[in-house]
Amino acid sequence: MTNDLTLLKRRYIRYLKLERNYSQNTIEAYVHDLDYLINFMRGEHLGVDDVRLENLETFAVTIHEFGVSSNSQARILSGVRSFFRFLVLDGVLQDDPAELLESPSIGEHLPEVLSTEEIDRMEASINLSKWEGQRNRAIIEVLFSCGLRVSELVNLRFDDIFAKDKFLRIVGKGSKERLVPISESALHEIQLWMYDRNLMKIKPGEQDYVFLNRRGAHLTRTMILIMIKRVAKEAGIEKTVSPHTLRHSFATALLKGGANLRAIQEMLGHENIKTTQIYTHIDITTLRQEILAHHPRNMKDHK
After folding, report:
1. CA-CA distance, 250 to 145, in Å (whole number)?
2. Of 81, 203, 229, 270, which is the active-site residue?
3. Is 17 marked active-site?
4. Span 250-262, mean pLDDT?
5. Looking at 20, 130, 279, 300, which residue is catalytic?
6. Percent of the chain scored above 90 by pLDDT?
7. Distance (Å, rounded) from C-alpha 53 to C-alpha 248?
8. N or C terminus: fewer CB in 10 A for the chain?
């Protein structure tokens, strides 16, 4: 059984040409889409016999997260299924890991992307004279600067903030931990929120949560969704905005700034990486350079 992706690609092209009798244009389109998968597999150090359905689902989430349209996602994943069917037919694999891989609904729309200027407009529209004003500003800044899921933000605790090293420790899906660089801007907004938070009466057991509601308990995802939609409307932004919009805008801003895709994937929590593995397998200085140097918030800070 071979794991030489270049060789398997050549055999697949020959199969498309001779067995399926596809045109040259069609073959080129299949190969172009296959290269997305091959680059992903090489980045994950996966051979074809290492690939499982969960790896392909991670690949599908990755291409969605980085702005590939639903139509293109469906086409790419169709090509992925075709490639693995070929590998089974060719005797390379016994089982097809892509058999249950689902394509996105064509009617599904990608989240809107907000520019840095639109984020600034949202933050500027917040009434800081209200008790929750600075909290909301800090929430928006953290979501945009760190690319967190809303569930990760509502569970953020003080023990997870390493201000000196400019990192957050995040517990993501599957209770998997990762370290996320945080900008000076976001740390500053959290510090300003602390002045208001320290005046609150906090419920027992809720003291460690960074963001609280007016009753002194940690926020829910629904509360943050409602808040962000309201702030976007008050800022005159007509796009459909949600907490995930800020996460998507974070990733898009980094990609446009030239950040390394592998580093962004780790930031978004799409890898099975625990905190100790980050320290043993990733150069923290390099990761900080890749992420912080390419995010517009940090470029503004450096100016």
Report:
1. 7
2. 270
3. no
4. 72
5. 279
6. 49
7. 24
8. C
Q: Which amino acid is at 171?
A: V
Sign of the four-CA dihedral 99, 102, 106, 107: positive
**Whole-structure pTM value:** 0.57
pLDDT of residue 162: 95
> Out of 81, 244, 262, 274, which one is annotated catalytic?
244
Amino acid at 249: S
248 is an active site residue: no
Rounded distance between C-alpha atoms, residue 270 and residue 302, angstroms = 28
The catalytically annotated residue of 149, 248, 294, 295 is 149
* Contact (Cβ atoms closer than 8 angstroms) between residue 166 and residue 182: yes
Q: Is 279 a catalytic residue?
A: yes
* CA angle, residues 62, 251, 33, in degrees to nearest 5: 35
Q: What's residue 259's pLDDT?
A: 67
The 3 state secondary structure assigned to the chain is: CCCCHHHHHHHHHHHHHHCCCCCHHHHHHHHHHHHHHHHHHHHHCCCHHHCCHHHHHHHHHHHHHCCCCHHHHHHHHHHHHHHHHHHHHCCCCCCCCCCCCCCCCCCCCCCCCCCHHHHHHHHHHCCCCCCCHHHHHHHHHHHHHHCCCHHHHHCCEHHHEECCCCEEEEECHHHCEEEEECCHHHHHHHHHHHHHHCCCCCCCCCCCECCECCCCCECCHHHHHHHHHHHHHHCCCCCCCCHHHHHHHHHHHHHHHCCCHHHHHHHHCCCCCCHHHHHHHCCHHHHHHHHHCCCHHHHHHHC
Of 152, 160, 161, 128, nearest in space to 269 by CA: 152
Q: Which of 104-118, 134-148, 162-176 has the lowest mean pLDDT?
A: 104-118
Q: Which two tokens stand for residue 170?
A: 């995040």
Examine the residue annotation and report whether 12 is marked as an active-site residue of this protein.
Answer: no
Average pLDDT over residues 194-200: 94
Q: Is 195 a catalytic residue?
A: no
